[in-house]
Design a protein that fits this description.
261 residues, alpha+beta, Glutathione S-transferase Yfyf (Class Pi), Chain A, domain 2, four-stranded mixed sheet, 46% helix, globular
C-alpha cells in the first residue's frame, strides 16, 4: 500500500464522498417540501442509533400517560441524501437526523441534535428527568457524556470496523480501544446502581442505550459484539437487556416511519 502523501492544502475530490454523502460545505442542495401530519410533534428521522432515541423517548412518554406526546414520524433516507433538502435544512442546518418540529407552540419550534430533543421533551412534559439538582445534574452528566463520546463508537469504531473500504489496523485498534474504555466505564458505573443517573430511569439511559446497549446486544455492526468481548461487561449487559425489554423501548423500535416522497 502506497503511503499517503499529505498535500499542503487539502482539496475536495468526488472520490472522497463517504457513505452519508457529506461534503466540506453545509446548506441545502435541492428544493424539498416535507410533509406535515396532524400530530403536535413532527419527527424527521431514521432507525439509526441516533434516530431511534426520539421514537423511544416519545413512546416512553406515552407509556407514562403523557398527553400531547402524539407524533408523526417521517423517514429521512440519509443514503438518498434527504437530509440535504431545503425543508430539512431549515429545521436542522447541520443536515443530520433526528430533527423535531413542535407545532403545539406558536410559532412552531425546531429542535435538532438528539440530546437537545430528549432534554426538550423531558422538560416540556416534566418526565424522565429528576427535578432535584443532584439527580438532574447526574442525568445531564451522562447525556453530555454520550453526546461527546458517541462519535467514537459510530463515526470511529463503526466506520472502520464495518464500513470502510479497507481494514486499517491502526484505525480499528484506536477506536476499539476507546469503545472498550467507554464500555468498561459504563459497566463499572452500573455495578453500583441500576440506572446511569442513579435509582431512576431517565433520558440518560435512553440516549446511551441506543448506542451502547444495542452494541452489546449485538444489534450494531455484525460481528462487533464478539470482537469487543461484550460478555466481559456483565452489569452493562444486564442493563442493556432490561432496557430492551421495556414496552416503550420496543414500541419505539417498531414505530412506523412514513415516506416523505
Amino acid at each position: 500500500m502506497t503511503e499517503y502523501q499529505l498535500p499542503k492544502v487539502w482539496e475536495w475530490d468526488d472520490e472522497n464522498d463517504n457513505i452519508s454523502g457529506n461534503r466540506p460545505t453545509a446548506g441545502s442542495r435541492f428544493e424539498q417540501t416535507l410533509p406535515v401530519g396532524d400530530a403536535p410533534l413532527q419527527v424527521y428521522s431514521l432507525g439509526t442509533p441516533n434516530g431511534i432515541k426520539v421514537a423511544v423517548m416519545l413512546e416512553e412518554l406515552k407509556e407514562l400517560g403523557v398527553e400531547g406526546a402524539d407524533y408523526d414520524m417521517y423517514r429521512i433516507a440519509i443514503g438518498d441524501g434527504d437530509q440535504f433538502g431545503s425543508d430539512f435544512v431549515d429545521i436542522n442546518p447541520n443536515s443530520k437526523i433526528p430533527a423535531l418540529v413542535d407545532h403545539s407552540v406558536e410559532p412552531s419550534l425546531n429542535i435538532f441534535e438528539s440530546g437537545s430533543i430528549l432534554l426538550y421533551l423531558a422538560e416540556k412534559y416534566q418526565q424522565l428527568i429528576p427535578t432535584d439538582i443532584h439527580g438532574r445534574t447526574e442525568t445531564m452528566n451522562w447525556v453530555f457524556w454520550q453526546v461527546a463520546g458517541g462519535g467514537f463508537v459510530g463515526g470511529g469504531f463503526g466506520h472502520f470496523f464495518a464500513y470502510a473500504p479497507e481494514k486499517i489496523k491502526y484505525a480499528i485498534d484506536r477506536y476499539a480501544m476507546e469503545t472498550k474504555r467507554q464500555l468498561d466505564l459504563l459497566d463499572k458505573t452500573l455495578a453500583k446502581r441500576p440506572y446511569l443517573a442513579g435509582d431512576t430511569y431517565t433520558i440518560a439511559d435512553i440516549i446511551n442505550w441506543s448506542w451502547y446497549g444495542r452494541l452489546v446486544l449485538g444489534n450494531l455492526y455484525e460481528g462487533s459484539a464478539k470482537f469487543l468481548d461484550v460478555e466481559s461487561y456483565p452489569h452493562l449487559m444486564e442493563w442493556a437487556k432490561r432496557i430492551n425489554d421495556r414496552p416503550g423501548v420496543q414500541k419505539g423500535l417498531a414505530a412506523e416511519y412514513k415516506d416523505i416522497k
